[in-house]
Amino acid sequence: MQLTKSYFEIPNSNGRTANVALHIFNPLGGIDQLVHGSAHLRGWGLPAFPDPTLYTVRGFYSPTHRFQYEVNPRFGNTRPANSIVRAPFRLELEVSLNVGPPLPLQQLERSMGAGRNRPGPKLTPNDLKKRYKRNVPDPYAAILEESDSLLISADQEKALEAVQTEYLRGVDSLWTPLTDYLAALGNSFDSKEALRRQEETVDAVWEYSRLNVQKTLGTILSPVQINLLP
Fold first, then answer.
1. Residues 24 and 34 placed together within one structural domain of the fold
2. Which residues of 140-153 are buried (b: 16+ CB within 10 A; e: fewer)?
3. pTM for the whole structure
4. Same domain, 30 and 55
5. Domain boundary residue among 38, 72, 100?
6. How much is the pLDDT for 7?
7. Is 46 helix (H, G, I), strand (E, B) or coil?
């Protein structure tokens, strides 16, 4: 059973990242063996499997047509030293290196390559906005869809629609600089710079959504309704 995993990244000179992961399996079992020795294990980190065998057949007496049994003295014993089921302590060091470009960079180059370095129409700013808006869903739309379950009143619904309009206007103002920049790129462009701007904008929209919801919902919905939100 894996109990612990530490993970870190090491950048190299080519701009790629080597992922290093250390897996630790059953550390309690390792401590048990280190402290008590293999012959005196306490069973730390091991499941208890009692010996289920009460009798063992040792022969058959034909005159009486009876089997001869021997009582198993270890019946019900859960001592780890007598068990064949072990979960050994183990360390694994895993190192991986992505040879190709990161997946987000590949996706950006593919979507922006149409009409530039491969056939297809160029994406307009509106086309790009539609795509990016799917990455950060409208929280107010999700709440209004659950209006019956949340017992939202008519006044609350109007208030939610009002703040939703303001929210969408703010989100649009964050997407517009990015989509205008991407749509204006020439046939040859710096994909890494475009990816940097994309990731910064996506993070900014998520943060804007979080802060906007925190600011508005408490003044519109009751504490019970907020606790019922999906």
1. yes
2. beebbeeeeebebe
3. 0.59
4. no
5. 100
6. 54
7. coil
Q: How confident is the model at residue 95 (pLDDT cuts 50, 70, 90)?
A: confident
Number of structural domains, the chain?
A: 3
Judgement on whether residues 119 and 217 belong to the same structural domain of the protein: yes
Q: Residue 77 belongs to what domain range? A: 49-81
> Two tokens at 48?
């208890």
Give the up-direction half-sphere exposure of residue 115: CA atoms within 13 A in the CB hemisphere. 11
* Same domain for 24 and 64: no
**How many CA atoms are closer than 13 Å to the CA of 118, on its beta-carbon side?**
7
Predicted confidence at residue 52, as pLDDT, reads 77
pLDDT tens per residue across span 30-76 = 787 788 877 776 767 666 667 777 788 888 888 888 888 888 887 77
- Does residue 195 surpass a pLDDT of 90? yes
DSSP assignment string, 174-218: HHHHHHHHHHT--SS--HHHHHHHHHHHHHHHHHHHHHHHHHHHH
In eight-state DSSP terms, residue 130 is: H
90 and 122 share a domain?
no
